[in-house]
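User: For my dataset I need records formatted as: sequence, then structure tokens, nothing else. Please produce one.
Assistant:
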Amino acid sequence: MKPVIAIVDDDPIIRLDIREMLEEAGYQVAGEAKNGQDAIELTARTRPDLVIMDIKMPVMNGIKAARIIRSMREETAVLLLTAYSQRELVADARSAGVSAYLVKPISETDLIPAVEMALSQRDKVAALHRDIAMLKQSLEERKLLDRAKGLIMKAYQLDEEEAYRKLRSASMQVGVPLAKVAALVVENGPQACHEAGGRLMTDGIG
């Protein structure tokens, strides 16, 4: 399924041109907006993968809107359009979390590669965030497991390997993740074996 894109420009002719180019390339257009404030509301309502937005617009400019959109919905990439190629604009766009920008007038040969680049960068950032979240979860589970092993070692005078086997045995016996068993031990004490039928069992480890 092709990504969903929102178009934001105060010029309806430009919006129409961009829509036609996107739809001819197979993209789905979520909707159109004529200023930055409308762009924020459109993004909140349609949750597009990408917002293509002009910088200079009434009510709220594209850079300010991009900053709000990116803080509100990190999964949405922003491609800015500008009539100027000025360093300060590029720096402002980057600080607002913009993926790419294009200088007007825009042709299909310029637009589609820029769209693909912005979406590709979005996917890479999303994958990085997922990896970081998984790593963080793995570290938290490791800390939890170490705490549970420590409690069992102290309570039953076991070494680390024996304590780990006790936890693993309980995990396999009741079919719950090892981290869940470790959490039960940390929360309820080393006698907490497993959780079954919605009740905490305390008949010993393993």
